[in-house]
Write a structure and sequence with these properties.
7-stranded mixed beta sheet; 5-stranded mixed beta sheet; 25 helices; 28% helix
Length: 929
């Protein structure tokens, strides 16, 4: 058949493959602005226009585009480069974070704008929840997107040297809104092979035999890899600066599978279709083994052992009891404390598995490039990772490669939230690339993201709190069981962190903890925003709220009476962290914000409940948290700032950009230190060729660790350039004043371009660059408080959020617009985890919610417009007084507002309609009895 389609006014005549969707057809022809997010028409990231109509190109057959005009996000701008008005509005409002979903929102908005005033205009632009029901954003919380659609401008252009503290736009903004920002798979690699994985159908089994003959006969299949091809080395998929933080319990391909979905074999072929067919033709003989999916049962004597074959070198706490890690500690004597209390509250709280749901799935491409010295080739791995340097280190250890023969680079990363602090694809792809000496690609499907990646750890928290009649805490005890799944990546560390700041933020003379990270035959858990703190905070803040109510006290007054103050020691039964300090204190201001919201309800100034239907129940609640600004044990960053020949600056830093905003902050810090404008600063990042080392973009380290390294480098360069300018002009050093583009040396202007040339002429090229290093210690703590007002329908269990207020103690806020976005995104994720998100597993541990439409992510209509308030503090440790904030908002305290509205204490998440209705029904029956 003949085939012709015009894409962005370019003709394409090559026919699509049988069954090919329009998305893959477009991407194979270089239109990388069309994104893959869900495979099922759920997320909208692949939205394009066909003859002006928006369609989800992942569902649209390519053959149907024959004879039609297709427009992608790349085709919106004019030929001379002028942005489409909607692109400009998204740029001005910064209506994105990672940007992976942005093309979809742009294309939807442009189509609706075009309908304005036409016969097809049904008012969707005045009803954005309806307009965007087919689009998902995991990062922003949607407020920034609404502002973009409404034409609200937030970005500003500060004067030279004044960028810090201003709403500077992201450097990659123009690329994001035009679809030219390059994410992991937005590259063309000649000779690329594709990998697909065969996964286990059993929760626990020994592989007896693997017959690959039929798979190898599939046309286009180049290799089938099994456990016999993999190195025997044990490692952890978790990435930490110190690998000993995690148990070494994983192999690239194992002869024993421990959960449904574990990879069994890998097929490498010319196409994904051939690789998938190869997987179907592999015949595996399994010896099924006993399995256990409940962590309490897993710790009992006689339970099936997941890693009983491993010795002490694996660093598993008690493999015979399936305990990956544990911590026990006590301050004082909690029994004495409970005896002194007038009220003792005891309850068990449970949290569920949550998927990170970053719209860009896990994956990588490995290929070979010539070495610069011409002595051969080296391996390059382009990966969707938060930790390029740690991944390189792990790959080199796994395959016995020197570090100078491996490069790991991350393009722009489409969301992370901790999920990409793992090595889930790079290990197996590298194995194939080394074997075949060919480029190899593995890109997870959305379903694989659910059953083959990681989740947030499900927790069971038994908590007992005692307090005197005057509200003074006497004792707090917790027993915490964290379900780490089949492997211990991040398990002990998450468990340890969860019972640190959650204990330390409250004063009590007696504290005790027993915490366990437990193996089960289920999908592994991993790092997730908050790193265990959100789960335990749900229990702690619920318990504190309940104790206050039983004492007849205002819950906010009760908190104010018991929280630690400035300069006070932070006591936790797991021991004090010697490098952790309260280097600035804003918790009192955070709680004051909540107090003002409560007062507005009492005075009638808050009118959010005016239109609540009759019979609905209305309530309000507060919660708070403290979190360390950076992980313990060292988090290292190197940075290099250089003057370029044209008089602009280059910043080289290792941390990755995935919507966390660190690129913008590093640009602002540099511009401030060098008294220039941000547009004269370019940032190179997330590439192991760029700097010596960077631990990674996790633990809120992008500003407080990498940012500090950038500040040190930029400050050092400013001093070096001043010295060079003084030598060049013969003017006293203190009379040489650095400006945006030149030095003023006692009235003589020396441009930076001239200074660069003078430095080279003098043989002082080393003076044109400076390095900075920060080791992540000492560390400070950040605080936050959240207040909700909600309405509940007792007849259906529906919860409506009437008002959301968040107070954040972020120290010096480097970029208020970006920091606000981080808070809003954190609140949105917390609401999803509180209200409906749940990775469900069946009795065999198999994931049953492996698609967005079955999992239920927060959409535009679900997320309130949160009022964000920043405290006025300046940290003594962080760069220029800044602290972290991207993790702190993950604070699921909606249950306190629900308790206030209904009188029922909910102890298990998520708070789905059916769960709420059943609890209210039981409560009503009990009152009636």
């Amino acid at each position: 058949m003949s085939f012709h389609v015009r894409v962005n006014d370019r003709s394409h005549d090559d026919e699509p493959r049988a069954g090919q969707c329009l998305r893959t057809y477009l991407r194979e022809r270089g239109w990388f602005g069309v994104k893959k997010g869900c495979d099922a028409g759920d997320c909208g990231a692949c939205t394009v226009h066909v003859d002006g109509e928006p369609v989800h190109s992942c569902l649209y057959p390519a053959v149907r585009a024959e004879g039609r005009a297709v427009t992608t996000v790349e085709g919106l701008a004019s030929r001379d480069g002028e942005l489409h008005p909607v692109q400009q509005k998204f740029l001005d409002a910064q209506g994105y974070q990672c940007g992976f979903c942005t093309a979809g929102f742009l294309m939807t908005t442009v189509a609706l704008e075009a309908e304005r005033g036409s016969a097809h205009d049904d008012g969707k632009l005045d009803d954005l929840p309806r307009a965007f029901k087919g689009n998902i954003c995991r990062c922003t919380g949607y407020r920034a997107i609404e502002d973009a659609v409404r034409g609200v401008r937030h970005t500003e252009r500060p004067c030279a040297g004044k960028a810090v503290g201003k709403n500077v736009g992201a450097p990659a903004g123009p690329q994001v809104v035009t679809g030219t920002a390059r994410y992991t798979f937005d590259v063309e690699v000649p000779g690329l092979l594709h990998m697909k994985l065969l996964r286990s159908p059993h929760p626990h089994a020994r592989i007896v035999a693997v017959d690959t003959a039929a798979a190898l006969r599939v046309p286009g299949v180049h290799a089938v890899l099994t456990h016999e091809d993999a190195p025997p080395t044990l490692y952890s998929s978790a990435r930490h600066e110190h690998p000993t933080e995690d148990p070494d319990d994983t192999r690239v391909l194992d002869s024993v599978v421990r959960y449904v979905g574990q990879r069994v074999a890998a097929v490498v072929a010319d196409s994904e279709q051939a690789a998938e067919e190869g997987c179907r033709r592999i015949e595996v003989t399994y010896e099924q083994l006993p399995y256990v999916t409940d962590p309490e049962a897993a710790m009992l004597p006689g339970a099936p052992q997941l890693h009983g074959d491993k010795g002490p070198e694996a660093r598993i706490a008690r493999a015979e009891n399936n305990v990956a890690g544990e911590v026990h500690g006590e301050i004082g004597d909690v029994e004495t404390g409970f005896a002194e209390a007038d009220v003792v509250y005891e309850e068990t709280f449970r949290t569920q598995r949550v998927q990170h749901a970053s719209l860009e799935t896990h994956g990588c491409v490995a290929y070979f490039e010539p070495k610069e010295d011409g002595t051969g080739e080296r391996l390059t791995v382009r990966s969707s990772t938060q930790t390029p340097f740690l991944t390189r280190r792990a790959l080199c250890a796994l395959y016995g490669l020197p570090e100078d023969e491996v490069r790991v680079v991350a393009g722009r990363v489409g969301g992370g939230f901790g999920g990409k602090q793992e090595m889930l694809t790079e290990d197996i792809v590298t194995l194939a690339a080394l074997k075949l000496r060919r480029p190899v690609k593995l890109e997870y499907t959305r379903a694989e993201q659910f059953y083959g990646a990681t989740t947030r750890h499900p927790f069971t928290i038994g908590i007992t709190v005692g307090a005197r009649a005057d509200g003074t805490l006497t004792a707090v005890r917790m027993r915490v069981v964290s379900n780490t799944g089949a492997y211990g990546n991040h398990g002990p560390a998450v468990m340890f962190h969860s019972v640190g700041e959650s204990f330390a933020v409250y004063r009590a003379p007696h504290k005790k903890v027993d915490a366990y990270s437990v193996y089960t035959n289920a999908v592994p858990a991993g790092a997730f925003r908050g790193y265990g703190l959100g789960q335990v905070t749900f229990a702690v803040e619920s318990a504190m709220d309940e104790v206050a109510r039983r004492l007849g006290m205002d819950p906010l007054v009760f908190r104010e009476k018991n929280v630690i103050g400035p300069g006070e020691p932070m006591h936790s039964p797991i021991g004090e962290e010697e490098d952790l300090f309260i280097a600035s204190y804003g918790l009192d201001q955070c709680l004051s914000v909540a107090r003002r919201a409560i007062a507005e309800v009492a005075s009638g100034e808050d009118t959010s409940a005016d239109e609540v239907p009759e019979g609905w129940l209305v309530g309000q609640g507060t919660g708070m948290a403290m979190i360390a600004t950076g992980p313990p044990g060292g988090h290292y960053a190197d940075a290099r700032v250089s003057l370029l020949p044209d008089g602009t600056y280059d910043v080289a830093v290792g941390t990755a950009e995935f919507g966390n905003g660190t690129t913008t902050v590093h640009q602002q810090i540099t511009a401030g230190a060098l008294h220039t404008t941000e547009d004269r600063v370019a940032v190179r990042q997330s590439d192991t060729d760029v700097v010596r080392h960077d631990t990674g973009a996790f633990g809120s380290a992008g500003t407080v660790v990498a940012g500090k390294a950038v500040l040190l480098a930029a400050g050092s360069l400013a001093e070096r350039l001043r010295t060079l300018a003084a030598r060049h002009t013969g003017v006293a050093r203190h009379l040489c004043v650095l400006g945006a583009e030149a030095f003023d040396c006692a009235g003589r202007t020396v441009t930076l371009k001239e200074l660069y040339e003078a430095g080279h002429a003098r043989g002082a090229a080393e003076e044109l660059a400076a390095d900075g290093h920060w080791g992540g210690s000492p560390r400070s703590v950040a605080f936050n408080a959240q207040w909700f007002r909600v309405a509940v329908d007792p007849d259906t269990g529906e919860i409506r959020i009437l008002r959301s207020v968040h107070a954040a103690d972020a120290g010096k806020v480097m970029n208020p617009m970006q920091c606000r976005g981080q808070v809003e995104g954190g609140v949105a994720q917390a609401l999803g985890a509180t209200l409906f998100e749940n990775v469900r597993i069946d009795e065999r541990g198999e994931v049953t919610t492996a698609a967005f439409r079955r999992y239920r992510l927060p959409q535009y209509a679900d997320v309130p417009r949160t009022e964000v308030h920043f405290t006025e503090t300046s940290d003594a440790i962080g760069p220029l007084g800044a602290k972290s904030m991207s993790e702190s908002p993950f604070n699921p305290v909606l249950a306190n507002a629900l308790r206030d509205a209904t009188g029922v204490r909910f102890t298990e998440l998520p708070l789905t309609r059916d769960r709420v209705w059943l609890a209210l029904d039981r409560h009503a029956r009990a009152l009636g009895a």
